[in-house]
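Suppose you are handed a protein chain with no further information: no name, no annotation, nothing but its sequence. What can you learn? This example shows the usual starting point.
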Amino acid sequence: MKSPQHKNKFLRGKPIERKPIPKNIFVTDLVENYFNAYNAARLKEACLLFTQKMLSANSTVGMSITGALTPAGLGGTCIVPLMKAGFVDWIVSTGANIYHDTHFSIGHEVHSGSPFVDDRILRKHGVIRIYDIVFDEELLYSTDKFFRELVKLPEFQKEMGTAELHFLLGKYVAERERILGIKNMSLLSAAYHYGVPIYTSSPGDSSLGMNVARAAFEGNGTRIDVLLDVNETAAIVLQAKRSGGNSGVFILGGGSPKNFILQTEPQIQEVFGIKEKGHDFFLQITDARPDTGGLSGATPSEAVSWGKVDPDKLPDTVVAYLDSTLALPIMTSYALAKCKPRPLKKLYHQRFELMENLKRASLKVKNK
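A reasonable first move is to predict its three-dimensional structure. Written in structure tokens, the prediction is:
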């Protein structure tokens, strides 16, 4: 028979209560007192990791975004407020999230709908559906034209990384918001205002990239340097670690953006040969599973084997198997309630300096 002392080490967690939930409860109370088990408890752990460790003064936080989050309004409701508060310092997003978020900023509407409508009828009437979100197909043509006209401007006639492309586009999106009196910023205009670099790991895989491609086909000089993106993002992470701070990743979904934000550490260690240990904090919201090979970069422990996560920091990792549209609003509200805004790092404006730091670190390895 085991001693009571032996048992107690397994029974140190907070006792689960059955206290009735009050009406109009604050999100902070809901998370801390009622998310007690299963993925509710993982979401609580995610909230605590984000606010108590990842948002420390010396941490640099990268966010990856997949799934159709911005058509559901989560760009303006959640991601932009996190950027404004200094809680997200750099972003890797699908091009689709950037493209669809711009609809709102150039005067268009996206509507709630039904996932059970006959799509043949929608096609006949020129209505596009993203599950239970619907919009007029003319919205796409208008947004396409908006971006194609922008990339014809003189400042776009060069080769650039996606962070610069998005920053330049953000200047004009912000101006359109001003003219139209739209107060809620888009990802692009927020990136411009707050100096948050936004990268797209697969720039051709979206309507935004498709329109840049058409412009190039017609003789436009805009060219996207995806290799620059690989090195710039690695430079951001290297500086976060070499400056005595931490690097944390906040991953919404999976896909290419998840791998791209995590591959920064293998780029530093494996490719450049610079001594490093991996990201310090790993927080993911996902509804995928690892045993089918569909988790897009898999679990934090598996990421350790690639050098993506510091093995000594594995306890500072959380995966909550939830829909991002449920988790992100809760986490955003919780973080804004629990943490004071951080000074903006404005990493976009530090890109050249960060690249020089990466070059110096690489030369040291070569000269050994």
